[in-house]
């Protein structure tokens, strides 16, 4: 048994780029000969993120059914499993994107109760430029999103502006100075996990950091519960079979676009809509993080395909019932337009229940 591992928490709002960053950081660390593992987290099982990271060759554990803060023991078990299986030097952990108060409920208890087993780096919170613009400038943005987003930044040791490959130099300068004027004491790193820009600088800084004193001294848990419960959550799995082979990338894109449009028709706002489509000839991860913004697609299939396994995760400010109907009507559309045989094998929809942390260290 080697040294005890370091925990590297990568937080931030839904769709900020946490899983993609964890993938990029893992690859950077592996190049340096550092053994890594990941822990994902969600309110329910069937996660695109876990499948994605495992598919990238990163040993990933999942804490599903409850967030890290409300299932601290689940997190410690996941750490134990990870240590037994791969003896990682660094464990990258991704809290649920709608969660906040992570420092008081997870990081500080971890530093105290698990001090013989793990050490913890300073807390990184990722901020997506389109979300920053939407929440700072948007008019009809749900208060719940603003509340959760602001609380997340308030407790960050390090803020990472993600996806900078989508910005011009001027846009980045503007967001950065806007950010720094509101939060003058936070260390900021602009990065792109897609191009690798800024990733090494962020990693080097974090590896020499420890959690500071920016934990939330107080937070209204009633308001926090109401904010989280404004979001509907859906996880689903389906198999699509096509008698006449199809272009899998086009079908995947069509499904995501249709879900996005249907959520909008129902008056909802997307937190993160993500879909993993796996076939024998490859896999695609496609998603939309901010209503009205473009579709992101990673991965590819080689040639037409006759079967697709889909994992769909939607988090949106709309009711769970609306999300179920959205998925049903989208799959019916694909059935009709592409002659698909559809087997929807798993659907779970809900609103997150009120957060009830196992521990809370607020002084
Ligand atoms: N252009 C660009 N897109 C990115 C980058 N990082 C992530 N994305 C895209 O942003 C979307 C969300 O990324 P994820 O890594 O899944 O975000 P997340 O924060 O883990 O999302 P949740 O787990 O749902 O909260 C995906 O479609 C990614 O491909 C980046 O550096 N550049
Ligand atoms: Mg993720």
TrEMBL record:
Any Pfam family matching the protein = cobW
Write down any Gene Ontology CC term.
Answer: cytoplasm
Task: Give the residue range of the signal peptide.
Answer: none
SUPFAM superfamilies with a match to the protein in the record: P-loop containing nucleoside triphosphate hydrolases
Could you tell me which residue ranges the CobW/HypB/UreG nucleotide-binding domain spans? Answer: 9-188
- Write down what this protein is called: Putative GTPase, G3E family
> Highest lineage ranks of the organism?
Bacteria, Pseudomonadati, Thermodesulfobacteriota, Desulfomonilia, Desulfomonilales
